[in-house]
Amino acid sequence: MRQHAILPAPHLKHARQQLLERGIAPQTSIDKRIADSWQRSHQAGLPHYGGSPCADNLDAISLNRARQRNYELIRHSQPIIDFLFEQVKQSQSMVVLADAQGVLMHTVGDLDFLSKAERVALRCGATWAEQQRGTNAIGTALAECNEIEVHGAEHYLETNEFLTCAAAPILSAQGNLLGILDISGDHRSRQAHTLGLVSTAVQMIENSMVLSPDRYPIVLQFHAQAAGIASVAQGILALSEDGFVLGANRRALHLLGLRFADLSRLHWSQMFDLKLEEFLSQQTRRFATLVQFHTRLGKSFFAQLHPHSQVLRTAAQQYSGKVIPAHSSSSHVDPQWQESLAKGRRVFERDIPLLLSGESGVGKEVFAKQVHTGSTRQARHFAAVNCAAIPEHLIEAELFGYVPGAFTGALKQGSPGRIREADGGTLFLDEIGDMPLSLQTRLLRVLQERTVMPVGSGSAVPVDFRLICASHQNLREKVKLGQFREDLFYRINGLQLQLPALRDRTDFAALCASILHEFSPQLTITFAPQIMQTLQSYSWPGNVRQLRHCLRTATALLDDEETQIEWQHFAQDMLTEFGVLSGEHERDQAVTLPIKQKSFNHGEATSTLEQNELAIGDVRANGFGANGLPSQFDDFPKLKTLSAQAIEHALRLTEGNVSEAARRLGVSRQTLYRKMRE
Ligand SMILES: Nc1ncnc2c1ncn2[C@@H]1O[C@H](COP(=O)(O)OP(=O)(O)OP(=O)(O)O)[C@@H](O)[C@H]1O
Predict the structure, then answer these.
(1) Which is more confidently placed, 570 or 629?
(2) Of 223, 407, 412, 672, which has the fewest beta carbons less than 10 angstroms from its beta carbon?
């Protein structure tokens, strides 16, 4: 908004003259923002008379590249620019879209005005930043990141005094400056409402970007009045599946009394009184129902899930019977995990590499994916590479790519490599401690130079990726032992985050529920009494991976109609691990540990302690042979289940040491990793 009325041109020229002669702008009577901009233009050494000293206009090829870089901005702006131009047509004006450097990307205007504009280089490819063209609406809006009107002699360069311009910055949902929208015209045709028109159009562009289909997991539209939903005045919040705020439009910030800087730390539960899960389950079942809820500060809002939210697509898959992962439910996540995730997301957004540590199977890759999907890069590729799972002689080609015919056995067409697959997105290097020293040097060069040299090629290819590394080994120790490069360690260690072992997590029950839901989405599976307590007090050396295998076996052993997991549904070695078969448990859990005999001997009775002992005895005597396998084919476990059990057992005995477990199992580490992923 203007603080002062526009002064007549002679007054403005006089004031500017004073500035040029004394070097100090007169602060009275002229708009302070214009005076400040004159100061900046003066300090940039621009001559206010005569032509522009600017030589920064882009040629056709560079303009094309700049347009490609700004593809999303242009795509979302174009229809709104066309609409805006409809409103100002035949008023001696034009609508302009500039990028965040002030380079004009797209213009549309009245033909006779366009030819006047051409004379002052108000055309595509020209730069209208303040340092090049002095005070002007595009450049000054960029410099201040604020909307502004610059009229007639308020322009710093005399050649631009015939213009009247109104411009406003376009911001991303994270508050980053993306570009400027401007209406420029002949100063004689100025309209007081032009700036309002431009800022409404900017809101429409910003909304259109947040509402892109499938861009964010959860998109909430809200307003104090029901009729405000879907209007340009609505607030829009973008959230991750687990309820962290990923972005917002400016109306949302206004309605909630927030700033962009608050967003990365904010969780749904800190803002609203309604549980996110309740809201989502209601919206996914009865889509397009308006819900009324309150903020923690007591403001009341109507809200609705936007149809472009990713969760709606996932819900549609769920109802059509496809399995979906459900481990992201928001309200029961372990606080250490949640805190690490919030920290990781903030740092990652600033392009600082994350180093995840934690025992094998704690979910380091799952965590890295959550950081990626909660970031502004979530629409781009997440490339995960397990450095321990790729044979040493193939890591180089796998990571850096290769040209056709680079080595025997290579693909005919060559390969871009995993690093280039992550271009624009995120590269996750798991078990980085296992990377051979020679490749550590190459990786360091990629990180320093941001280019990749494919195997067999002489030329480097630029890459732009964010990095997350993980290791279950102590990398500092490896540095001391000379097995890991110190400079690489500091490069990848922007922020180290220790992920909790499963036995230390406080969300064990919620985790079990979400894994069971994943394995059996149509049914609500529960545990028989005491089982949860036993599972919770077990140490889970193989962490979430082991828990998944264990629950997968248990759900696979449920009969069609069964929804309750009982002891008989666990693998035998797990029962031993839990102390159930050793006798300890039978003594401790005398009354509360019923074991159904059904799946062992096809009976139906639920036994008490005596029956349990009998049942277990029966199982040993009748169900299983001396080799530990069932003697009946009906009960015969799948090879896959046995293999999973053997792996779990080996990992448990070796306390999660994958190399040792692989040796004990008589397979290579790569094979073991592959089997662990299956
Ligand atoms: N919160 C979770 N909910 C459901 N499954 C999970 C969760 N966290 C991890 N998992 C599962 O546990 C297994 C191990 O997870 P992940 O591969 O992320 O662990 P990791 O720490 O990277 O393991 P490693 O160190 O062996 O590479 C995977 O099958 C993964 O899907």
Answers:
(1) 570
(2) 412
Taking the centre of ligand 1 as the mean of its atom positions, its distance from the CA of residue 361, in whole angstroms, is 5
Q: Do domains 9-196 and 218-319 have the same CATH topology?
A: yes
224, pLDDT greater than 50: yes
Q: Are 566 and 594 in contact (CB under 8 A)?
A: yes
- The CA 609 to ligand 1 mean position distance, Å, reads 36
Q: What is the 3-state secondary structure (H, E, C) of 128-144?
A: CCHHHHCCCHHHHHHHH
At residue 125, does pLDDT exceed 80? yes
Domain ranges of the chain: 9-196, 218-319, 335-500, 503-637
Average pLDDT over residues 153-168: 94
Query: Region 118-132: what's the mean pLDDT?
Result: 92
Calculate how far, in angstroms, residue 275's C-alpha sits from the geometric centre of ligand 1.
26
Q: How far apart are CA 436 and CA 399, in angstroms?
A: 13
How much is the average pLDDT of 482-510? 93
CB 207 within 8 A of CB 236: yes
Measured in Å, residue 306 CA sits from the centre of ligand 1 at: 31
Largest CA distance in the chain: 108
Average pLDDT for 425-438: 91
Domain 335-500: CATH architecture, name and number where available = 3-Layer(aba) Sandwich (3.40)
Confidence check: pLDDT of 178 > 60: yes
Residue nearest to atom 12 of ligand 1 (CA): 545
Cα of 483 vs centre of ligand 1, distance in Å, is: 26
- For the domain spanning 218-319, the CATH number is 3.30.450
Residue type, 438: S
637 confidence band (pLDDT: 50, 70, 90): low
Please report the atom of ligand 1 found closest to the CA of residue 499.
21
Q: Which residue's alpha carbon is nearest to atom 24 within ligand 1?
A: 360
Atom of ligand 1 nearest to the CA of 430: 27
Inter-residue contact 13 to 153 (CB < 8 Å): yes
Can you give the pLDDT at residue 597?
A: 30
Residue minimizing CA distance to atom 28 of ligand 1: 545
pLDDT grade for 308, boundaries at 50, 70 and 90: confident
Interface predicted TM-score (ipTM): 0.97
**Tokens at 149, concatenated:** 């009107």
How far does the centroid of ligand 1 lie from the alpha carbon of residue 436, in Å?
24
Residues with a CB atom less than 6 Å from ligand 1: 327, 358, 360-366, 430, 470, 472, 511, 514-515, 544-545, 548
Give the span between the Cα atoms of 446 and 628, in whole angstroms: 52
Burial bucket for residue 92 (CB in 10 Å: 0-12, 13-18, 19+)? middle
**Which CATH number fits the domain 9-196, given the four candidates 3.30.450.40, 3.40.980.20, 1.10.10.60, 3.40.980.10?**
3.30.450.40
Counting ligand 1 atoms within 8 A of each CB, the residue from 365, 390, 473 with the most, and so the one to mutate, is 365
Q: Which of 473, 402, 465, 397 is nearest to 434 (CA)?
A: 473
Pocket test for ligand 1, best of 355, 366, 508 (most atoms within 8 A of CB): 366
Q: What is the CATH architecture of 503-637?
A: Orthogonal Bundle (1.10)
Please give the number of the atom of ligand 1 that sits closest to the Cα of 658: 26
Q: What is the pLDDT of residue 325?
A: 38
With the most atoms of ligand 1 within 8 angstroms of its CB, the residue from 469, 517, 544, 670 to mutate is 544
Residue 367 Cα: closest atom of ligand 1: 18
Which among 241, 499, 545, 648 is the best mutation to test ligand 1's pocket, defined by most ligand atoms within 8 Å of the CB? Answer: 545
Length in residues, the chain: 678
Predicted confidence at residue 605, as pLDDT, reads 29
Provide the β-strand partners of residue 104: 98
**Which string of b and e fits 290-299 if b means at least 16 CB within 10 Å?**
ebebebeeee
